[in-house]
Amino acid sequence: MNAREFAFKVICDIETNKNYSNISINKHFKNIEIKNAERGFATELIYGVVENKYYIDYIINKLSKIKVKKMSTFVKTILRMGTYQILFLDSISDYAAVDESVKLAKKYDKRSSGFVNAILRNEIRNKETIKNIDEKDEVKALSIKYSYNPWMVQNWIEKFGLDFTKDLLEENSKKPNLYIRVNTTKTTRDELIEKLTKMGVECSKISFIEEAVEVKNLKNIENNELFNQGLFTIQDISSMIVGKTINPKENSLVLDVCSAPGGKTTHVATIMNNTGKVVARDIFNHKLKLIKSSVTRLGLNNVDVEEYDALKFDEKSVDKFDYVLTDVPCSGLGIVKRKPEIKFKEKEDLKELPAIQRKILDNASKYVKIGGTLVYSTCTIQDEENINVVKAFLKDNEGFKLDPIDSVEIDLEEQNSGVLKIYPNVHAMDGFFIAKLVRVR
């Protein structure tokens, strides 16, 4: 299968089943044969179309009497792919973009081939003028330009101001950097960098996290021999900061109540140098398999994986753990770069989250020993899911207090007060919120 048809199938899957791009791509790579040389172009097409969906639809709607929302999934996907190639990819000739799109239409919706051909050729003729966004309303114009649900843009302007929001939207439109975490139970950062460099991988150390490395040109990671030997794992800096915030001592007992896919769990287990015990819990069996797979690959023998719902109170865990991590389900609005589908969420999809987050935090707090540490984290930048949840918890739980985050050598606002607010456009990493609390009685 060629790159365009592969991309077509993945995008249709995302559109129909509301899957995340990375999950759908990985699923299809496993089930459909495609040459390695075609993978990069296919991935570029998939993410390009998804990340720019609203803008692409705006362009198509300028030229089509039939609006995108009334088109079949097959037709709008083919048109979106063709439009993306014409407007965004200088390396692809306009002729090839049209010709290959018409071929897809003939194969999957034959009656639409003439329609697809006409719209795309019209785009080529009007390429320069149709790029303009003819909207005077700032929120609407930004939501089209960067392809966001308008309520998100409005929300951020109200909270952060227009200039900050523009910077945030622009930063989120860039490709995410790739970071790896060295498995220090098996190797050192310098040794790993030396081996990766010999493979042609460009490596840069992250100064404030000694096990973090930024990498470039690292392809087909699942087939990389060093990865399969468990010498490193993929993890963003912000996520690593969570583990460094917990900073457990060796031989400690740690609970991660929402562990999947296991990055923070395995980091904590590694920080403890394979001593003590980390209990990693999650509710879904397929996610538990992911955790177990990572634990096995990294050679960690201090992790127990358990199926358990964090929303249910566990009497057996009361006052048991030295450290408890609550990395709760959230809106994900700090990791839009990595999961662009988040941009299209409805406001109503998020309204139940704070209550869920608070319930998980309440339960988790009961499992912490006196003198123990409770860490609350999310990958969102929304106060409703972050500081507001923590403040409400502290108001009702006088036995806990915020504790300075001094185990990470990074100067962030409110760090000394026990809170980290990380923004992609300010700190050049995934948006995260981290709060460190200690149980004092």
From TrEMBL:
Its EC number is 2.1.1.176. S-adenosyl-L-methionine binds at C258, S259, A260, P261, G262, G263, K264, D282, D309, D327. Keywords: Cytoplasm, Methyltransferase, RNA-binding, rRNA processing, S-adenosyl-L-methionine, Transferase. Residues 168-440 form the SAM-dependent MTase RsmB/NOP-type domain. It comes from the Bacteria. Gene3D superfamilies: NusB-like (1.10.940.10), Sun protein, domain 3 (3.30.70.1170), Vaccinia Virus protein VP39 (3.40.50.150). SUPFAM superfamilies: NusB-like (SSF48013), S-adenosyl-L-methionine-dependent methyltransferases (SSF53335). One of its GO terms (biological process) is methylation. One of its GO terms (molecular function) is methyltransferase activity. Its main location: cytoplasm. Pfam families: Methyltr_RsmB-F, NusB, RsmF-B_ferredox. It is found in: Cytoplasm. It catalyses: cytidine(967) in 16S rRNA + S-adenosyl-L-methionine = 5-methylcytidine(967) in 16S rRNA + S-adenosyl-L-homocysteine + H(+). The active site is at C379. Specifically methylates the cytosine at position 967 (m5C967) of 16S rRNA. NCBIfam families: nop2p, PRK14902.1, rsmB. Belongs to the class I-like SAM-binding methyltransferase superfamily. RsmB/NOP family. This is 16S rRNA (cytosine(967)-C(5))-methyltransferase. It comes from Metaclostridioides mangenotii.
